[in-house]
Amino acid sequence: MRTRFAPSPTGFLHVGGLRTALYAYLMAKQSKGEFILRIEDTDQERSVEGATENILEVLQWAGIDPDEGVVLDQGTVSEKGERGPYIQSQRLEIYKKYANELLENGHAYPCFCSSERLDQMRKDQQAHKQAPMYDRMCLSLSEEEVKKKLDAGEPHVLRLKIPQSEKITFTDDIRGLLTFQGHTVDDQVLMKSDGFPTYHLAHVVDDHLMDIELVVRGEEWLSSLPKHLLLFQCLGWKPPRYAHVPLLLNKDKSKLSKRQNSVATREYIDKGYLPEALINFLALLGWNPGNTQELFSLKELIDAFSLDRIQKAGAIFDTDKLDWLQGQWIRKMPVDEFAQRIRPTVEEKYPAAKDDNDFEQKAALIQERMTFFPEAAEMLSYYYEKPTVTKDLLVNAKQKVADEILPKVMELLITTLEGVAEDQWTEEGLKEVLFALAEEKDYKKGQILWPLRAALTGLPYSPGAFEVAVALGKAKTMERLSSASAFT
RNA sequence: GGCCCGUUCGUCUAGUGGUUAGGACGCCAGGUUCUCAUCCUGGUAACAGGAGUUCGAUUCUCCUACGGGCUACCA
Fold it and tell me: Which of A2, A40, A365, A374 has its CA at 20 to 30 Å from residue A406's CA atom?
C-alpha cells in the first residue's frame, strides 16, 4: 500500500506530525508498499527557509525514511521517484490544468469578491447567528459579466460549487461511517488569486496522481473531508482510504500547543531522548497492540500495527511514560553503543576521558541507573576529578556510621586495602577482604562500605563501593582514602 | 451560533450483554542492596449522567451534560 506524509515547511516537525508520519510509514511498510514524502508549500507566506531540511532530518533521526518523494541524500534535499515533482510549488501547472477542468465542467466557478466584502459578510452572518459561509454572490454573475471581468484581469479565486442537496457518506478507516449534508459545506476556494492552489485541491490532485492508497492525517481535517470527497467525484477519480487520527492534547484537553508543551520533535532530540523511546511512546499514544507488550522497536511496530486498534478519542501528551521508556531503551542498548553515545558529553566536561581506555567499563556502571544522557558527565565526575569529600558525607546515621567510629573505620580501610595485591583488586577480591573485615571487627557492612564509597565518590549516591574502587584502581583508591581520612 | 467527532483509574489503555472491570506509567508501601537508581512484590484508583431494550448493561439505542476539532485566498 502506498501512503504518504505531506508536511508544510512552516517550521519544525511537530510531535503530532511525527506520530502521523509514523502511522503512515507503518502502514506502508507492513504491506511492503511505499511511503512517500511530499512537501506542501502552497502557502508562500508561511513557508520557512530550511524547514524542509529540518523535517527530513528529524524523520531520518526517527528511522522513518521515505521510499519516494522528497528525501535527504547525503544531507541535501533531493527528489526520488517517477511521479514528481514532489514539491507542490513546482506543480502549479498541474493544478491549473485540473482547476480548468473543474471550471469547464461547471463544478467550480470564479469568485471576484474582495476580502473586505467576505469579512463583512461573515461578520453579518455571525451577528445573525448563521454559519459563516460564502453567499455565492459570484455564482449569479452572468456569463458575459464573468468574461468581462476575466478579460479585464480582475483578481479572482476559483471556488468549488458544492451540490447543496447532496448527502455525502464515507467510511473512515478509524472512525467508521461519516455523514455530511451538502448544504452545510462551504464553497471552498480551490485556487487562490496568486495562482497557487489551496490544500484542498492540491492534495486531491497529488494523492490521485501519486497513486496514494491511504491518507493518514490529523482529525482536524475531518470537517473538510466532504469537500475532498466531492473533488474526487467531480474529477472522476476514486478517493483513497482515509484514516483520521485523533489529536494529541494538552493537559487541559485542548489541541497540543506550544504554549503548554514542547511540541517540536527537535526539543526532544536535544534533551537526549532516544529515537526508540520517542517512537515507542508516540506509537502507544492512541494505539495499542491488543496485548500487554509495552516495548516496541520500529521493526516490531511494523508487524504489530493496525488502524483498527487506534483510539477515537484524543490522547493527552503526558511524558511520564516517555521517561520510563527512555530508561528501558537505555538499558536495552549494547554497552559499547551506550558508551559511544555518552562519551562526547563526558569528554566535553572532562577532557581526561579522551584518554580513558576503560571508559566502557565505567559507562556500564551507570547504564542501569540513568534516564537522561546529559546526566552522564555528572555521574562519572569522580573518575576524572578528585571529589570534594566532607565529614558530613562520610557520617551516615542510617548506616550507623557515627562520628566516633569514623577514624577507626578509615584506618581499617586503609590498612586492609593496602594489603590487597593488585591482582586481587577485583570486585570479588575486595568483597572477600572487606566482608571478612566487617565480620572480624563486628561492623555492619554499611559501616564499612558507606565511608569507602563516599570517600571515593564524594557523592551521596553512586554505583557501589566495589565497582567504583575497581574502576578507580588501587592507587587512586588509596589516595582518596587517605585524603578523606584527614576529615576524621 | 452551525457542522462534525469524542467520553473506562491522575495519564496511556484492555474490554464488544453476565468479569472480583485487566495491564502499563505515575504515586504509596514493602523487599533486594553499602547509598541512589535498577529490579521484585503488593497497594491506591475508572465505566460522565438519565431514560430505554434485556432476565441482565461498561458493552446496544436515544436524550442530556461535558470536552474537542473545523467554521481563511493557512495547512
Answer: A365
